């Protein structure tokens, strides 16, 4: 944005946290993050989201050995909800830039006896081979990337043909702006997210509403699939 006032030109440009800053921010939040999500109703909302997808028969739940990548796993709230509602024997590969978040995720998944392994990495450079996963799940991570399309294309790379991406992002609006002000992320509306997803090469996009609660007003959830 630019304004001209008399002989002065004033500009404002959006900046994003560096990887080191983002890691430090979430390291500091790791000790209370999981309880925070539970108190705000996100853990319940995540379970209901998985219930909706299961009832719609849109997930690869019939295989004995599913392998799923959770990009931006945090303290594993999204993965734990998946394990509870879909398949507790799914192997979770959890990726996060914050080592403290990964420590918490490792503890939570181990306590729940969910097969898993955690990796400290940036979503833009996932440490996995092409077509490695039966699904990728990603909650409130894409909005932290300066170039979200790059991150989506990297996610598509590690998906098997025909496999789904289940994505949750911060929604544009007043509450989204308040979250953005504190955490330095960006927000999306459905049109913006749809454009990004199609550019990344994903198809069959469907948006899934959250149940009544805070997540319904702060977040957008959707599922899309890698071309076969």
UniProtKB/TrEMBL annotation:
Name assigned to this protein = Class I SAM-dependent methyltransferase
Is Transferase among the key words of this record?
yes
UniProtKB keywords: Methyltransferase, Transferase
For the biological process aspect of GO, one term held by this record is: methylation
Q: Does the keyword Acetylation apply?
A: no
What positions does the domain Methyltransferase type occupy? 70-166
Q: Could you tell me which PANTHER family the record lists for this protein?
A: METHYLTRANSFERASE (PTHR43591)
Molecular function (GO) terms listed?
Answer: methyltransferase activity
Q: Which InterPro entries match?
A: Methyltransf_11, SAM-dependent_MTases_sf
């Amino acid at each position: 944005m630019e304004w001209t006032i008399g002989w002065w030109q004033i500009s404002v440009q959006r900046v994003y946290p560096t990887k080191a800053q983002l890691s430090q921010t979430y390291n500091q939040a790791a000790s209370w993050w999981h309880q925070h999500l539970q108190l705000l109703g996100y853990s319940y909302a995540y379970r209901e989201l998985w219930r909706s997808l299961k009832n719609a028969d849109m997930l690869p739940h019939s295989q004995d050995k599913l392998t799923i990548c959770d990009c931006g796993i945090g303290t594993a709230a999204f993965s734990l909800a998946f394990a509870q509602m879909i398949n507790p024997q799914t192997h979770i590969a959890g990726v996060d830039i914050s080592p403290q978040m990964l420590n918490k995720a490792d503890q939570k998944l181990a306590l729940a006896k969910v097969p898993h392994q955690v990796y400290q990495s940036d979503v833009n450079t996932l440490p996995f081979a092409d077509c490695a996963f039966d699904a990728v799940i990603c909650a409130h991570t894409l909005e932290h990337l300066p170039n979200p399309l790059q991150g989506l294309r990297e996610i598509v790379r590690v998906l098997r043909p025909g496999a789904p991406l289940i994505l949750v992002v911060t929604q544009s609006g007043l509450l989204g702006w308040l979250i953005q002000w504190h955490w330095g992320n960006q927000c999306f509306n459905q049109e913006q997210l749809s454009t990004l997803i199609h550019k990344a090469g994903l198809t069959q996009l469907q948006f899934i509403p959250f149940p009544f609660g805070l997540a319904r007003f702060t977040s957008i959830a959707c599922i899309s699939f890698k071309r076969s």
